Amino acid sequence: MNSVATNIFSYDAAELLGKHISFLVPKLESLDVSLDHLLSDPCSRSMEVFGRGKSQEFFPLQLGVVEVTTHYSSGGSGLIFSFLDLSLQRQHEEQLIRLQKLNALGTFTSGIVHDYNNMLGLISAYAEILQAKLPVNSGLERYVESISEAVERGANLNNKLLSFSKTLPTEASTVDLGKVIEGLRFMLEKVVTKTVELAYLPAEQL
Questions:
Q1: What are the structural domains of the chain?
Q2: Fewer CB within 10 A of the end CB, N or C, for the chain?
Q3: What span, in angstroms and rounded, lies between the C-alpha atoms of 33 and 38?
Q4: The whole model's pTM is what?
């Protein structure tokens, strides 16, 4: 038992001396057949299993095996096992899969944003036409302004989505929350039911 193996399983060499391989790789029910296959196939000398360390936690492990003939008078043979901890490799694989999913999501988001931009452009154009056609002091100007403000908020949201999809650099900016809430106030007053009372109490320098 060399130091690499003892470090992998967190045991001292004395604790492992004389132990069966099943002590480190407990699930040997199907492993016996696999070992026979490995020993009979010269092209294959390793397989992936789950090892169990001193903490009793299982971890992915690559197990290699080689049959050797002893030089004792009995003329018997034995097995030499090698171990490779695959925990870090599995973590890197999981990180790569998550990164690939995020990249795919970014590409998907970018496509949605372009379609959304087209709709916003159409809404903005019709709002401008409606603004030009409204009679003076008709009382409807505020509704058109609300449409334009909603388009602007949608465009800002688009920019954030584009930043997520990595097609635009992320830029931090200072936002006046009071103005943002004030811009939403008129729209909310028209959307919520009469049983809901909206109170607008902005703080200074929010």
A1: 3-85 (3.30.450.20), 92-190 (no CATH)
A2: C
A3: 9
A4: 0.48
